Task: inverse folding
């Protein structure tokens, strides 16, 4: 068993960090002795990307702005899939709520779990990690309080990186783009659709960010939106004013030219091209270098850095399962640190990683991806005492969700799902999503 004198440093207190801290708190409530835990959170409050800020570029402290959250975002997946196993939506709100809540509602729910587990005692808010390096069998962490500017240097036995991977944009370029006189931005800096009314927009990329921003802008009155795809169109039935076109080729003589030979002019160019796994505060020997896939080849069980198993990463995959997956990863990490899980030697771990890599190579479409991540989480559950939460049934909900999005991308958020935990049926929204302009917590709760 791990000595209670050990120290664990957790970097980040969004949903992944909250899951880790909650897991340790639950162990303590169950009578187990836990190590000293310090969680570093650079924002002024917990919640990670669910916090909204008007800052872009740099924040009030001159640091790179962490948040990619924008106003009027609503969940793009049914809440019944991400319902915490130890904290249902009924536990939090006291009544059934509809299946696709807006951002403030989900943030309130996440923070509610944090309060339930009293994680504040572990967390140093407004504190950024500047540098982590291996020193003998431990890790030296230099942190800075952004308000007082006081720096600390401390030693930890384990480092858990839970800072997410949706903060540092992947930014491609195209020939001639430097000559474009309109507005160029990445979706990381998108905050409000209303400001684009009356403008023609070109979105590069057709993943979830481009899809949702296109719908947001169309909903709030932007009447001319083009989505440029690299490999294949989404196949959605877009509302009037939104269209898809093959990949951008170049910008020349005041016009954007595309692979199909067409061209057009725009006033806004927005890159919806995803994010990098970026951990500049870690030295190279403990830094994860990965892309946003459902499989991360350097991590045993998708969590433990194979070349240094005292470094743990939470929430580093592309995601269908979100909150419950983070929770279960947190439980696995906790039990490993407490000495309750044996992980074998590096060769044995590599063999397990290769198994999941081979499985992932056979994935062909979104439905296969859902099943792949279902099976990955099922594997973790074999080692953990995470509460029963209908994990397998959630895959069925995700398959249904995939079909409803394909059927009508503008109305799928108006559907109702049933909680696999409580049996609560999400009420049908009184106002369809495309017409509902009130995303406030109060407005949402009062209209249920």
Result:
């Amino acid at each position: 068993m791990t000595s209670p004198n050990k120290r664990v440093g957790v970097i980040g207190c969004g949903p992944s960090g909250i899951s880790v801290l909650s897991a340790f708190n639950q162990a303590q409530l169950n009578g187990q002795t836990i190590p000293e835990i310090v969680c570093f959170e650079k924002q002024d409050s917990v919640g990670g990307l669910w916090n909204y800020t008007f800052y872009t570029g740099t924040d009030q402290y001159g640091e790179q702005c962490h948040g990619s959250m924008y106003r009027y975002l609503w969940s793009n997946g049914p809440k019944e899939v991400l319902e915490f196993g130890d904290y249902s939506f009924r536990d939090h709100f006291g009544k059934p709520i509809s299946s696709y809540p807006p951002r403030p509602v989900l943030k309130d729910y996440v923070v509610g779990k944090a309060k339930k587990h009293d994680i504040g005692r572990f967390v140093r808010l407004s504190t950024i990690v500047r540098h982590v390096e291996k020193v003998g069998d431990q890790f030296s962490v230099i942190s800075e309080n952004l308000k007082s500017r006081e720096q600390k240097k401390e030693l930890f036995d384990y480092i858990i990186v839970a800072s997410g991977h949706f903060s540092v944009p992947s930014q491609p370029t195209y020939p001639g783009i430097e000559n474009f006189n309109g507005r160029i931005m990445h979706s990381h800096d998108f905050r409000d659709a209303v400001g684009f009314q009356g403008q023609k927009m070109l979105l590069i990329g057709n993943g979830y960010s481009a899809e949702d921003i296109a719908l947001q802008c169309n909903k709030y009155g932007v009447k001319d939106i083009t989505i440029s795809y690299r490999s294949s169109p989404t196949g959605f039935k877009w509302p009037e004013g939104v269209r898809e076109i093959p990949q951008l080729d170049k910008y020349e003589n005041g016009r954007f030219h595309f692979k199909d030979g067409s061209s057009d002019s725009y006033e806004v160019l927005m890159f919806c091209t995803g994010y990098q796994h970026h951990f500049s505060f870690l030295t190279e020997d403990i830094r994860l270098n990965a892309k946003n896939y459902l499989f991360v080849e350097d991590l045993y069980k998708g969590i433990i850095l194979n070349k240094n198993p005292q470094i743990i990463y939470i929430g580093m995959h592309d995601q269908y399962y979100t909150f419950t997956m983070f929770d279960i990863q947190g439980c696995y990490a906790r039990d490993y640190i407490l000495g309750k899980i044996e992980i074998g030697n590096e060769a044995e771990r590599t063999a397990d990683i290769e198994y999941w890599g081979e499985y992932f190579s056979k994935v062909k479409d979104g439905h296969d991806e859902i099943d792949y991540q279902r099976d990955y989480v099922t594997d973790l559950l074999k080692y953990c005492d995470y509460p029963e939460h209908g994990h397998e049934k959630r895959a069925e909900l995700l398959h249904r969700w995939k079909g409803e999005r394909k059927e009508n991308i503008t109305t799928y958020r108006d559907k109702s799902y049933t909680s696999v935990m409580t049996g609560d049926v999400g009420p049908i929204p009184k106002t369809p999503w495309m017409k509902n302009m009130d995303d406030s917590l109060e407005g949402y709760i009062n209209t249920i």
User: Anything to note?
Assistant: The radius of gyration is 22 Å.
